[in-house]
Amino acid sequence: MEKLLIIDGMNLHFQMFFGMPSRILNANGKAIQATLGFVGAFIRIIKKVNPTHIVVLFDGEHPNDRTELFAEYKANHADYSKVPDYESPFSQLRDVYDALTFMNIRHVEVAELETDDVIASYVHSFQNECQIVIASFDSDFFQLINDNVNVLRYRGDNTVICDTQYIQNKYGILPCQYADFKSLTGDSSDNIKGAKKVGIKTAAALINQFSNLENVLNYANKIEKPSIRDSIISDSDLLQNNYKLIKLENRATLPFAFDELSYTYNGITTNEVLRGIGLR
Asked: Which of 127, 194, 219, 264 is most buried, by CB atoms within 10 Å?
């Protein structure tokens, strides 16, 4: 069966830029640690997944329709335009793009919506035709997991493949319920506040009792604990808005057709890639 590997490019790039043990300079004094880390991790992911097709998607800089729903959406994210180049992950992003081009990997900066939306649209479009692996630490992708879709969280030798069982063991819910669950708990990484007094265990209990957020809100008067019942009722509008922010639908235009993403790993190494783009 064909297998599509989707890389959340900015997620992996940031992980490498901030996760490498120190700033690494090449012979010309150019910082290359993020590019080195990205290419090395990327090749290791390819070897682990053994995909037949690959696409790498990066967030572009453009207005986000989610901020129309919630002005504070991702307002807690750092503004790297105000830091020196050597502290900004964007200073090495062009080299990462060059590396992917050298490897003949299709990649693009998403020009509309968010990378999450394009990844979700790839999943919705092809999940019944092939296996799909999403490489990202963004937990929003947990809602897309099913028998044909997994999420890979790259940690070198400790890389984790998240499947349906992983979500059930970690949260006590099904992947298809994750957007409902996260709407209740909120998401501090994206500056989304959840219902007051509702933590992970309470959210899971509510989802298991009522199946989804809509039912939690419609039958909130049946919630036994008064403080939780009052919280859900008072935060009803907030929770409905959270769901709109978190739920990933098939709403993005795909930048590449499936056949354009065909790839066969040829054994290329990190050093060969860096030499090929002039960083070694």
From this structure: 194
Is the torsion defined by CA of 31, 98, 57, 3 positive or negative?
negative
The pair of structure tokens assigned to 199 is 């933590």
pTM: 0.93
Q: Which residue from 118, 140, 145 is spatially nearest to 251, judged by alpha carbons?
A: 118
When divided into structural domains, the chain yields a total of 2
Per-10-residue mean pLDDT, the chain, length 280: 97 93 87 95 98 95 55 55 75 97 97 94 98 97 98 97 98 98 92 92 97 97 96 96 95 97 97 95
The pLDDT, as a whole number, for residue 185 is 96
Sheet holding 106-110, edge to edge: 106-110, 53-59, 3-8, 131-135, 149-153, 160-162
- Domain check: are 210 and 140 in the same one? no
Specify the pLDDT at position 83. Answer: 67
Q: Tell me how crowded residue 247 is: count the other CB atoms within 10 A of its CB.
A: 16
Q: Answer yes or no: do 229 and 262 share one domain.
A: no
Structural tokens at position 243: 């769901």
Asked whether residue 143 falls in the same domain as residue 25, the answer is yes
Residue 67 is predicted with a pLDDT of: 54
Q: Give 29's contacts (C-beta < 8 A, 6+ positions apart).
A: none
d(CA 170, CA 241): 25
Closest CA to 7 of 89, 142, 93, 105: 105
Q: Residue 257 sits in which domain range?
A: 3-168+248-276
